[in-house]
TrEMBL record:
GO terms for molecular function: DNA-binding transcription factor activity; transcription cis-regulatory region binding. PROSITE patterns: HTH_LACI_1 (PS00356), HTH_LACI_2 (PS50932). It comes from Demequina lignilytica. It comes from the Bacteria. InterPro entries: HTH_LacI, LacI/GalR-like_sensor, Lambda_DNA-bd_dom_sf, Peripla_BP_I. This is LacI family DNA-binding transcriptional regulator. CDD domains: HTH_LacI (cd01392). Pfam families: LacI, Peripla_BP_3. Residues 11-65 form the HTH lacI-type domain. The keyword Electron transport does not apply. Keywords: DNA-binding, Transcription, Transcription regulation.
Amino acid sequence: MSTETARRGRATIRDVAARAGVSHQTVSRFLRADPTISPALRERIEAAVEALDYRPNVVARAMRGRRTGRLALLLPSGEAISSLEILAGATGVVEDSGYALEALTIGGPPAARAQRVVDLLDSGLFEAVAGLTALEVEPERLVALRTPVILAPSYDSHMRSVGELADGSRIADLVSGLADLGHTTFVHLAGDLEHASAVSRREVYLETIASLGLHSYGVIECGWSPERAGDAVGALPGAAGVTAVIAANDKLAAGAIRGAARRGWTVPGDLSITGWDDNELSSVMMPSLSTVSVDHARLGRRIARDLLALVDASPAAPPDDEEPITRIVWRESTGRAPVRPAG
């Protein structure tokens, strides 16, 4: 903050405008997240805001009226296709209720993330906010801030799935479905065990194998590498009698199918293989892949309804809203267990 601004107290929107070399109307448009502001101009204003430690005058805004018509989802920085699907589902519900929805990323070290959350919730820019990641702010402090917030953690700080998105319960249905087709000996190709989703799928696999009295050749850690999955299938001893592969996601399943083909095994004639995610290519592979589909958009709609409830504008939820967001899609990569496992 400049010495002059420090002497006068809290920085104003005109101080930011002067430092950035723009009009105060332009700064006002920036604060409203006007998409017509160029990236270069946005960077100049952001730098001025940070240098002056500028915070919007929430008292003045309150005098002009509390309603902004804006809601927000807070996400960790990073990339995940599922987050775009969640946002799409949430946006439709919010816009149908006459509100605008914005997705904001919260990056940096924990202390900086926490302070940004506090500043945001104290700014009055939004009528309600949903945190799709841990906000790292004490619960009592969150309650004391101006903007109501709900916690719907779907990602950790590295944009890895947590909570409902990481629930591996459907693995039990895959294993039991294959057991009904006569399969008794399985192997699990595990994902990166730094991910809660990979851990959950592994644990459910082991629990289900034990509860159904089936046999597991083992759990083979593949990260998320289809090449490692293919090598793992290629290295399976014929004497192991494995007839079913439970892969932690569709990429590993695709690698497993390739590994089976390299050693002359057919899918599902010699080996049944399942994935997870219902990747857009899963239905057009040869063979098409049995997998678990995750309805990220429906999760987004749920979160949106909870947000709207905070501002007393929530539409009625459909009767099946509490149903799981996952479902199994059985396709060509699974079939009856072979009479004699491939050697």
